[in-house]
Amino acid sequence: MVWDDNWFLDRWIGYFERHIGRQNLFIVLHGEDAEARRIAQGCNILLLPRETVDLDFDWTRWRFLTDLTNALTGYFDTVLCLDVDELIVPVQEEQSLAECLLALDGTSARSVAGYELFPDQPGAERYDAGQGIAAQCRKGLFSPFYSKSCIAKGPVAFTPGAHGTFTAPAPLAETVALFHLRFVSTVELERRRSARKAIATAAYDAANVNVADMIASGRLVSWKRAGRRHGKVFREFDTATEMAFAEGHAACVAQLAGLRYENDGQFLYRTDGYAPTRLRLPDWMQAMF
Fold first, then answer.
1. Are 152 and 67 in contact (CB under 8 A)?
2. Could you give the CA distance from residue 149 to residue 162 in angstroms, rounded to a whole number?
3. If DSSP codes are grouped into helix, strand and coil, which group holds residue 254?
4. Rounded distance between C-alpha atoms, residue 174 and residue 177, angstroms
5. Per-residue pLDDT tens for 92-112?
6. Which of 4, 191, 211, 245 has the most crowded Cβ, counting Cβ within 10 A?
């Protein structure tokens, strides 16, 4: 589900069409966008109205995406429900994405170990010249928060953001990883941060609430206070232990087993009490995205 994120949409479709095919991609436009339609030509496009963003934006959005995912599981073996800046990638060169997904058994949701990708040279804008993201962003920071329950093998109940599930925990799919791309372009990071802060501020003002009121509820806080949260991630990247990808991924998967918890019927991963780990992406991934 996308709005005003065509830089990422172009790259998201470019990756998944090679591994799954455009005919199997569903793009939900939250508001009309002619450029997004051009980029997504050949995909399945759904248009939703966009008037204002209120405090319940995330809950409304993820109820819809949960229902859409569940409908699609009636026709597809596996459904990935992702944001436009997230990719699911095999962790071994000899396995394709489709092979990894089809090999997952059962009918429950699956979670995936997540990593924040960082550029080798922050601020270098060379992506439009044709060089892939993985060739320029070769470090992945382990992120329990972005270890999302985003793979549906049958009916699922997502928490907002698909960071977890309701009713039952999602077993971990160890043969794939989630790469979160928000930090790969400094220009896009700053543009999105400014735009989303303005949207959150407008929603708070319209509801006559302040930031302090919203912190406990979590509604749009990640947009309002993105700068502070991003700073924490940058500091963790600088202090993390660096490991080769295969060894590091196994270590991060092992950590996730001890980070799962339940909160008011939501099964999530804790975002504290883990060892910060930075992985070096293998050379073969440069051909992937």
1. no
2. 6
3. helix
4. 7
5. 999 999 999 999 998 889 999
6. 245
